[in-house]
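Quick one, tokens below:
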């Protein structure tokens, strides 16, 4: 490139405050991209939030991300992984837009092509989403078209032909001042650009700033209006209007001593608040499913195809309420991707019995509105007590981010093979016939939750010596926890006190008093389930069927 000198720094002092032409071109690129995104949001507001280019491109990126990168994102950003993705996508878009602006200085066709590519990527991502259709390409296409118009309008102001031919534009003087040869492509431009009088220059600059300001205004208004209109898809009000009753077959009251958290600061509460519950799914925005439009079809290898509305499910007389812990397979040793709630729903076994599962249909394939699929062994759906289609969570309708209006819960199986949120379809099929979302990506077909224990307290740093409590939770779903042991430094295993048991499908808290001396200590925990299985020390990463190993914590006591 012939023109690599930063005119802003090389120019004489008087020009230092002025906007160099290239800076303005870069701004034009970024503003044009903002116009494209804003207009696209507005149209997505008319069509549906799943057509927003940021959402569809982000979704496509999530789907295409190789597993190690995804694991890295989950472990690095945790539940902020989606925010990280959006920020990352926007940074990329604006870097691209900046380059488009600069290249438009050479040739406007590059700018046009650049924004067109930008629109094409959005349109392609939109149609190839699992739930995408051709209409979903509109926001990207129209957004890109308006973005191109905006870019051309701004560039036209930036490249006003000369009015007179005396003097040079201060902000462009740097190129000349440094004696850089005006290279090939830029020759024509420079003839137009650098030879102007002061008056013409300031007028041109004013024209550019007016055009850019107008475009930025269009971006803000369309983007803002789009975001507002998209709120009409929001189901918060419809959700608030639903009344979730405690069913006759309610969860049993917790026995005394089941929840040690009130007495042990830092210990995970027995029941996780809905607002605190971990969230893992493939979506950038939370799917909004209208409870009145919702229905679930049970079909495939069944004798009776059935369809249920939410009212059908809520009105049944076999509704149950149960305390169940659910866990993500991506949870690392000692990780927080687990939570316990009081779920209300209809036993899966009853629904499948009514549908009449044909023999040989070994897989229940469920599909959600986000296009996500989960395969669950039919046998587990029938055999595991309290496997259910849930519509209530801790006395409320399911929160939108946890699958409103209906999700599946199967105690003892990792979420990706059991916990379909926003479920709309249930097909009885075979494992030979189809793979679900994560099994297509090589995670195991069968994924029972592994025996696990975690130390929640004390904290690693900032704790003073004295009488402390080591405490945490352990889970061995459907088998139950029999024992938790803690090892302090190289000492013997000491048996911790277990909280009273609620049920074998829920985690169990434990605690061990510790007279802590100053210095560095290593705490290790292991659990034993009610079948006598001792938690393995052998370390395994989450892929392909869940992490294992003892949770070890280094604490520094002051
Ligand atoms: N529709 C849908 N359901 C889904 C997922 C998803 O991406 N989409 N993720 C699954 C995974 S991997 C887990 S661990 C659980 C998490 O449920 P939670 O977010 O309510 O904790 O939801 C499961 N159900
Ligand atoms: Mo998960």
């Amino acid at each position: 490139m012939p023109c690599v000198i930063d005119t802003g720094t090389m120019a004489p002092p008087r020009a230092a405050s002025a906007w160099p032409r290239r800076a303005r071109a870069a701004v034009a690129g970024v503003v044009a991209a903002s116009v494209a995104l804003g207009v696209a949001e507005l149209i997505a507001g008319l069509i549906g939030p799943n057509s927003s280019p940021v959402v569809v491109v982000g979704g496509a990126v999530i789907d295409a991300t190789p597993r190690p990168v995804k694991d890295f994102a989950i472990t690095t950003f945790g539940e902020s992984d989606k925010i990280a993705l959006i920020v990352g996508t926007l940074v990329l878009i604006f870097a691209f837009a900046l380059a488009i602006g600069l290249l438009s200085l050479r040739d406007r066709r590059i700018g046009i092509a650049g924004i067109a590519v930008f629109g094409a990527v959005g349109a392609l991502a939109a149609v190839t989403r699992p739930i995408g259709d051709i209409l979903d390409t509109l926001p990207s296409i129209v957004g890109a078209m308006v973005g191109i118009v905006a870019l051309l309008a701004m560039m036209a102001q930036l490249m006003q032909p000369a009015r007179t031919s005396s003097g040079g534009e201060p902000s462009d003087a740097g190129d000349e001042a440094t004696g850089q040869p005006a290279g090939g492509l830029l020759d024509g431009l420079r003839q137009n650009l650098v030879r102007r009088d002061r008056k013409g220059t300031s007028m041109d600059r004013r024209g550019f700033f007016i055009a850019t300001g107008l475009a930025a205004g269009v971006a803000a208004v369309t983007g803002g209006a789009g975001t507002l209109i998209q709120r009409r898809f929001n189901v918060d009000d419809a959700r608030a209007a639903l009344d979730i009753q405690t069913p006759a077959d309610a969860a049993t009251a917790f026995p005394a001593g089941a929840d040690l958290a009130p007495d042990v600061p830092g210990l995970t509460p027995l029941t996780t608040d809905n607002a605190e519950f971990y969230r893992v799914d493939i979506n950038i925005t939370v799917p909004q499913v209208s409870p009145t439009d919702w229905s679930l079809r049970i079909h495939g290898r069944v004798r009776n195809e059935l369809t249920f509305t939410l009212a059908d499910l809520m009105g049944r007389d076999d509704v149950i309420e149960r305390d169940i812990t659910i866990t993500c397979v991506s949870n690392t040793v000692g990780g927080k991707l687990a939570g316990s709630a009081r779920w209300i729903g209809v036993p899966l076994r009853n629904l499948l019995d009514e549908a009449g599962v044909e023999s040989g249909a070994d897989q229940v394939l469920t599909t959600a509105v986000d296009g996500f699929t989960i395969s669950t062994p039919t046998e587990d759906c029938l055999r595991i007590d309290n496997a259910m289609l849930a519509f209530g969570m801790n006395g409320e309708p399911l929160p939108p981010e946890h699958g409103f209006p209906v999700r599946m819960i199967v105690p003892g199986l990792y979420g990706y093979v059991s916990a379909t949120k926003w479920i709309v379809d249930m097909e009885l099929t075979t494992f030979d016939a189809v793979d679900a979302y994560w099994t297509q990506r090589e995670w195991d077909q069968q994924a029972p939750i592994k025996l696990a224990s975690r130390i929640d307290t004390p904290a690693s740093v900032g704790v003073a010596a004295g009488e402390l409590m080591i405490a945490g939770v352990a889970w061995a779903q459907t088998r139950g926890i029999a024992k938790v042991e803690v090892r302090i430094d190289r000492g013997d295993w000491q048996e911790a006190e277990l909280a009273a048991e609620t049920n074998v499908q829920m985690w169990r808290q434990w605690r061990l008093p510790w007279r802590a001396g100053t210095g560095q200590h290593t705490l290790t925990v292991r659990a034993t389930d009610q079948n006598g299985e001792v938690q393995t020390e052998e370390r395994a990463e989450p892929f392909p069927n869940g992490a294992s190993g003892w949770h070890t914590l280094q604490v520094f006591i002051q």
